[in-house]
Amino acid sequence: MNAVCPGEIHTPMLEASVKRSGRTIADLDELVPFGRIGKPDEVAALVAFLASDEAAFMCGSLVEITGAQAVA
């Protein structure tokens, strides 16, 4: 079993939360070393990889997809 650990991902729910807080997506982008928050299709691609035969020998991994935010 593996786990996907996403950082901030640009979704309607995140947009609503950011709007309520008085901040903007651009504010969040500045906090990410890669210069932007993640996209849903990037997380989907990681999940598809983990579900594929290419990852058949992976087990017990926590895969962070944060735009380097977790290591900064």
From TrEMBL:
Keyword Transmembrane: no
A Pfam cross-reference name: adh_short_C2
Keyword tags: Oxidoreductase
SUPFAM superfamilies: NAD(P)-binding Rossmann-fold domains (SSF51735)
Keyword Oxidoreductase: yes
Listed InterPro entries: NAD(P)-bd_dom_sf, SDR_fam
Record-stated family: Belongs to the short-chain dehydrogenases/reductases (SDR) family.
PANTHER family in the cross-refs: DEHYDROGENASES, SHORT CHAIN (PTHR24321), ESTRADIOL 17-BETA-DEHYDROGENASE 8-RELATED (PTHR24321:SF8)
Name of the protein this chain belongs to: NAD(P)-dependent dehydrogenase (Short-subunit alcohol dehydrogenase family)
Native organism: Rhizobium mongolense
Biological classification of the source: Bacteria, Pseudomonadati, Pseudomonadota, Alphaproteobacteria, Hyphomicrobiales
